[in-house]
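To whoever is on call:

I kicked off a structure prediction for a single chain this morning and the downstream step that reads the tokens threw a length-mismatch warning. I double-checked the sequence; it's 385 residues and nothing unusual in it as far as I can see. Pasting both halves so you can look.
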Amino acid sequence: MEYTQGVRFDSLDLSPEIMRAIAQRNIEVSTPVQAGCIPPMMNWEDVIAKAPTGTGKTFAYGIPIVEHVDPEDESVQAVILAPTRELAIQITDEIRLLASFKPGVRCVCLYGGQPIGRQIDTLKKRPQIVVATPGRLADHMKRRTVRVETAQTVVLDEADRMLDMGFIHDVTKLLDRMNKRKNLGLFSATISREVMDIAWVYQRDAAEITVREDEQNKPDIKQFRMEVSQNGKADAIQRILAETGFDRCMVFCNTKGNTERITKFLQMRGVQAECIHGDIPQKKREQVMDKFREGKLQVFVSTDVAARGIDVDDVDIVFNCDVPDENQDYIHRIGRTGRARRQGVAVTFVADFPSKIRIDDIASKTRNVITPVKFDDEGRLTPVE
């Protein structure tokens, strides 16, 4: 079924405890994916949901999971799998918020890059909800530090990304172990061949929810492209930020080396910038992301690992320092801005002919209007004639 609008949360027959947790966030109306998924998941039905990034998927499955948990039962009752540690941490925060008025409901987050001993100590507190990356969960299961066979609900968040990243073997092994589940939720921005295969094998009569990118839920993002030399990108970012006064900015690069380089160049120009990529220790990555979430960092530079892993509602502008290799990565990158009914801005730098071919292809395949711009004589952005 296609959903283009939400409903009021008080029409969904939720517990007073969940309604209090939602009220804490000053939210009254659900998003389309929440309106579509909460009722079938509350009824223990399988769900396959196709929805754009940033449409509230965590609450869509988190609310039914927290509602179903029996605080008296100390076995694992729900497992949520995520492709990246950043997304796993973010999901855990949202689940804990939803459970804040439900005493005895415990949630643990398991991911690589954190000492396993600390996670084992948390598991000894017998959490009912396990949020994990597939590799680290498989590791804990080998060590017998967690038992997930009792799980009643299993969710794969960003299922397309997880299976693209080569986790399909881990995921199917985990699903085979969790064979007492009552329902399986697949949440994905795209329904790829691999997602369809998982649905075919592991779901029965799933409720299908599609959230269309219509005018109501499609982000309002002005998209620009700009011809800039490889060495002129930091200057261009600095000039645009100075002209617009934007103070929440994400910059995406294709490689770890480029993230380091652009961050250093920005810092040399007095711009408050920090970066994360796969080689930066997890603790440092979390510190940088927390600073950005709390508004203490103006420019956050990253490889695509953070495109789905950080969820901040008020990013003013996104810069693509490198044109992404995949069309879907472009969508996920620019989707960091233009949220919560605010207008966003995305600027992609084009430094050579292959980049020009790529951005033309992205514009054509994703049906986005990406306007060419340049600096005029007074340093203001102006459309290219």
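Update from on-call: the warning came from a stale cache, not from the record. Cleared it. Sanity check on the structure: The radius of gyration is 21 Å.
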